[in-house]
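Hi W.,

Here's what went into the run:
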Amino acid sequence: MKINPNISCPCGSGKKYKKCCAVFHKGGYPKNVLSLMKSRYSAFTLGKIDYIIKTSTFQNDYDDLKSFSENCEFKKLIILDHTEDSVTFNATVFCNNMDNSFTEKSKFIMVDGMWKYESGEIL
Ligand SMILES: [Zn+2]
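Here's what came out:
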């Protein structure tokens, strides 16, 4: 999928995509868990499944992630809280026109100097 680099970034930063999460999607690595979480959200909205897999500690099924990304519309991300290794957020998500919005506390872990998604607790 060709993505216009000048769209406003899906993570809600207010910056252009090319100056925000695109940096990470192209191989840069987020220095903190908040940037990582936002860039993973953007990756879901843009269908960047490889990035989701790369930034996770466990093996997700590629096709599951792809169908989630394709069948759902990611409308809004609100960060509620974050610590050094966790981010609590609310995501407004509609899947097949049903409201699947959720609030999650994501936990991250440092692996070989890179933050990765470890687990998520739905609140
Ligand atoms: Zn962004």
